[in-house]
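Researcher: Re-running this chain for the archive, since the previous output was lost when a drive failed. Same request as before.
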Amino acid sequence: MSIETSITLNNGVEMPWVGLGVYQAEAGEEVKQAVKTALENGYRSIDTASFYYNEESVGEAIKESNVAEEDIFITTKVWNDEQGFNETLEAFERSRQKLGVDKIDLYLIHWPVPGKYKETWGALEKLYEEGKVRAIGVSNFTEEHLENLMKEAKVKPMVNQVEFHPRLFQKGLLEYCQSHNIQLEAWRPLGKGDLLGVDVVKRIAEKHAKTPAQVLIRWCLENKVVTIPKSVTPERIKSNADVFDFALDTEDIQAIDGMNENQRYGYHPDDFPYDKM
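Model: Regenerated structure tokens:
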């Protein structure tokens, strides 16, 4: 395995196991340098969103890189105030133009806006059927949201991107997604950096001569979870990719699993302030 190694989604599309997340990376030089550094170091997956306000810079970085656009897996998302059937189609077109690409690899519903996400999913199905996106999915959906969606959906989501790290293991959701062949993807896999100093993680990192961040990313992979660690620091971007030359043993995995406290750094999907968008 290497940074370019992919998982096959339920529609046959290949998605890299590790990508670069660019949430809170500033538009302009900061995000452009991060994307270029990632691509130079073998990353082939970049995850952005309309809400990040940096799609244009991501697109420019891809154009300026030495990697062909068709070799890069690009994910973006429709934000909460863009949801609804026609609104989503318009939002997609805005994102596509900002990214400067003909086709988006993975398009996600960013949050399950009550009363809207099914209609939004209908728009994603249309985009998928028309070949404008290679895969469609959701983000921050619980088992209940997925159940409700799939009762009426024509196309099953390929991905569910959620907050996932040792303090928020979400084992039930992971097992649910695996049983329905929906790929779980982790945002904030390093727990906002808080988990890097935890004794358990540091001990396992020393044992494998790796960094705590590499251990946390590897833990996601051992659980068959795709992950998109965010960084704008060149050394960390490079280091976060160096997770394919070691494996965690059963004892390591059990110790990290045992860190779960159901602690979120972001909102629970049911508690998101949808009315304040």
